[in-house]
Amino acid sequence: MNKNYNENPNSTPFDRFSENAKKVLAVAQNISEKTGNQFIDTEQVLLAMLHEKISLANDILASFGVTYNDIEIASNFFSNVDNFGNGRPEISNDLKIALQQSVVAAKQSGNFQVGSEHLLFGILSDSRFSAYQLIRNIDIDPEKIKNQLKSMFQEGFKNSQEIARENEENNQKNNKNSMLSKYAIDLTQEALDGKLDPVIGREKEVERLIHILSRRTKNNPVLIGDPGVGKTAIVEGLAQKLAKNDVPLKLKNKKIYSLDLGSMIAGTKFRGEFEDRLKKLITELEKKQDSILFIDEIHTIIGAGAAEGAMDASNMLKPALSRGKITCIGATTMDEYRKNIEKDAAFERRFQTIIVDEPSMEDTINILTGIAQNYEDFHQVIIEKNAVNLAAKLSHRYISDRFLPDKAIDLIDEAASAVVIKEKVGEDESIKKLETKLENTILGKNQAITNQDFELAAELRDQENFLKEEIEKIKLAKKEIPREKRVLVKKEDIAQVVNRWTGIPISKLMEDDKEKFSKLEDILRKKIIGQDEAIQSIAQAIRRSRSGIANPNRPIGSFIFLGPTGVGKTELAKALSSEIYEKNDALIKIDMSEFMEKHNVSRLVGAPAGYVGYEDGGKLTEAVRRKPYSIILFDEIEKAHPEVFNLLLQIMEDGYLTDAKGRKVDFRNTIIILTSNIGVSEFTNIATLGFKADEKESKTLKEKYNEMKSQVLEEIKKKFKPEFLNRLDKIIVFQPLGQEEIEKITKINLEELSQRTKKEKDINVKFSKKLVEWISKNGFDAEYGARPVRRLIENEIENLLAEKIITGEIAEGDEVRVDFVGGKVVLGSKKELVRK
């Protein structure tokens, strides 16, 4: 008998049972409840053993050919109707005797605990037990099983096999819970099992990790880098090297355990519970000298588990780290390291930092190429090489708030997932039919058992097993689709995911809109009248950006529009929004009259920490973060406080702005437009002359315009600093509008009105030439430009149309002609002439 076996007067008999044995008894109770049995007997324990695949008893029964289905059918055939009852089942007398026999068998074999194999010996210890009879009734000799168990007990099989099996989940050799198995993952074992992705392009960082771990003191490295750059992957790379034994002699046979701090804290209701768990973990690590602890997001241990009068996790780790008793690898971001770890100098000095930078585009493509096979096998697709390259390129260019390679990997993963769902890969009607047939077979089998037609039940059981095998075969075949039959993940699929994430048009991403950009001037001239110079300058800047010649680290273009109100400055920005970005809401308008005071400037990037509005973010930065592909219109820039120009300098030069929370906001996909009314008086004089001029005077007016333009530019130089003006791509002076331009604008506005009435009310509205001429003359104002044209149309035409539609004088399907007769606007149709 084992000399370590001691009786405890306060313990219950079940305290001696292993976790697997307890689980078997719990399942046996559950079986009894479901089947309505009054007692838990040896047959339910036998069924539970066959149900619980991880127990040693199951392995022994399986080696003799005892299966769950055989025992289930035999159990139903020989069931005793008198045993059925309601309520919680009790342990039968036979099972009580069997449990006592199992305890005796464990003692005699020198084991502290009663395992599932001892339980099996107990339920077969008497030929009168139902478990014994069931096994005999399926033509298997229970005595052979008992003899096998006796031989195992004599050879001490328990000590060499079962303890090792159960220790992984619950026990060590001293019967204490293993903290590492409960709260950590063995990354080295994961690497051996092939569960980790290959690590590519991080050889220098892994080598530095090995150097620090091999030091005599301060051998605790901490990886610091932005989220998604691959800090955890570097540790996984080291785990793979350890698994291959491709490490220096000092690190051979070492294992890396990744700590799950959340699980360790979870469930610690009372003071001292967390400290107890962590202390046990540290003690276990000190004893296991081959262990390296990895704490991802290591900043979370600062303050973790701390309560009033208690120590947090970092303070409990300090002594063990300083003595060199345990080795620890940490990973965190630079912000969290600065905020949490640097403040605790005593904790920080025990670690050596390794800075992990974002990989280059080339390295990212190599990483994606290396791990593409894993995603292909998971999704059962083939990822084209050009799709991999595009994922790296687009994620770097357009997804600015995340880091490579993480954002590129996510692109490929989601694109593959979308393709699989779209093509319905792996779905098969034959599986659904077989599953329906299986359900009917199981129902038929159960009904046959109820009717005591055991011959039919046996046939249906065989059919059930056959159907299960067929379903598994089909599913396995679907899991392993031959490469030649797999669907492709193409460039278009990657572009569609980026489009869903950012809203950027697919045509822009796929670069198949070159024809549109080559004719951009013609497209814009249809909407913006009389501003050819402005349109040409903007079109050239956009073409430079699209062709890849322009600096990729600056905005697409930055312009200042000069001119009086109503000449088309804002209208050009709106036209660009709809044509370039293919959506009308891509225009972010910032009225600079709101930022005339210095204390208001901070609202653009967000209020400082501690001030009202800090959590809301900046008016400019938040808008661009939500819509990174947009036009930003700074209206009336001359009214802005000088501090605003410092922000604009950074945007126009570097392509980004840092907000109050320290986040970099990307402006590389924006067009910056600033408008100003500087020199309005000069514009007004030219506009008045230009509107009344005939062809003979046009040359003189052009000369006057050039003189005025020079004066305005001189005024601009006095108002704005040279460093600001030098960063602008173009200073554009809008030309005053003449008679011809006003007529074209009038026609555009009337055409828009005609389209609205046709779309909304199905009314065809036509306008006479006289009406156009009258609106053009009366709708121009040298001070307000073309804006009065719209007001005149609203007051004289739209109001009249609305009145007649409401009164029913104009109905859906009518054709209406609007004319100017006798100094009045007239609505006419075939039926009548309605005068204003």
Please give a handful of descriptors for the protein shown.
836 residues, alpha/beta, Double Clp-N motif, Rossmann fold, Helicase, Ruva Protein, domain 3, 5 domains, 6-stranded mixed sheet, 5-stranded parallel sheet, 38 helices, 21 strands, 54% helix, elongated, disordered N terminus, disordered C terminus, peptidase activity, ATP-binding, Clp_ATPase_C, ATP-dependent Clp protease ATP-binding subunit, protease
3D architecture notes:
By secondary structure, this protein is of the alpha/beta class. The chain has five domains: 155 residues, Clp, N-terminal domain (Double Clp-N motif); 179 residues, Rossmann fold; 128 residues, Helicase, Ruva Protein, domain 3, CATH 1.10.8.60; 221 residues, P-loop containing nucleotide triphosphate hydrolases (Rossmann fold); 97 residues, Helicase, Ruva Protein, domain 3 (Orthogonal Bundle), CATH 1.10.8.60. Helix content is 54%, strand content 11%. It is built from 38 helices and 21 strands. The protein has a six-stranded mixed beta sheet. The longest helix is centred in the middle third of the chain and has 26 residues. The protein is elongated. 36% of the residues are buried. Pfam families: AAA (PF00004), AAA_2 (PF07724), AAA_lid_9 (PF17871), Clp_N (PF02861), ClpB_D2-small (PF10431).
Q: Output the CATH homologous superfamily of the largest domain.
A: P-loop containing nucleotide triphosphate hydrolases
| Shape assignment | elongated
Residue windows where pLDDT falls under 50 for at least 5 positions: 1-12, 77-85, 157-176, 687-699, 830-836
Distance between the termini: 117 Å
Strand order of the largest sheet: 3-5-6-7-4-8
Report the total helices: 38
Q: At CATH's second level, what is the architecture of the largest domain?
A: 3-Layer(aba) Sandwich
CATH structural fold name of the largest domain:
Rossmann fold
- β-strand percent reads 5-15%
Rounded Rg = 40 Å
Percent helix range:
40-55%
Secondary-structure-based class equals: alpha/beta
Tally of strands: 21
CATH class of the largest domain: Alpha Beta
How many domains would you count in the coordinates? 5
